[in-house]
Amino acid sequence: MDLQKHVQQPDTAPRPDELRASDADRDRIADLLREALAEGRLTADEHAERVEGVLSAKTVGELEVFVRDLPAAHRRRAAPVSAPSRPTVGAIPVDPDDNVVAVFSAASRKGRWRTGRRIHAYAIFGSVELDLSEALFDHQQVVIKAFAVFGSVEVRVPENVSLRGMGGGVLGNFETDTLDATDPDAPVVYVDGWAVLGSVEARARRGKIVADILDKVQRKVDRSMRRHLGH
Length: 231
What we know:
single chain; 231 residues; alpha/beta; 6-stranded parallel β-sheet; 29% strand
């Protein structure tokens, strides 16, 4: 009998810091570096050098090296805030601020645009795309009323907002990927309506965050630069 076959093999499972890094891991580290730049903890050259390293890092441990000396990396990560399943009574007007209609055609809203409190989307034998990933949110609660009849309505939101679905399908598909933001003041997008022999789909767009928050970060960077320049 070959006794070596019965010798217990050592545990070769990798340590947590040896695991391969995902895009989400890189995004998290990049956010910490951007925050450090805004607070004046890193110079522009240091920030650029570390971001370059983040992009080429292969493991979680390699990523952590770039934020090891930053206080934000050691703070306890905030838990997601559970948004209400329905908007606050009286917060959303009855009439839409914007109508997007596609009848035997295609229509879209995307890029840098301001969202109202209520948006109506109608796809009749057509397709509607509502991309809020770079939009400016003037209100914390936004309702998208989507109607897809032999058509499709596609909704995309930033990763750092809350997303809720309130609609349904009739011989169609109404699908919303629930999303919870960590910031209690983050916008909440409610997708309502019906998919009749059509489809309504709402989900987050990977790697995109609310543009307003980016603007706040940029203002911090500008203030920091002005302080260093003596203005």
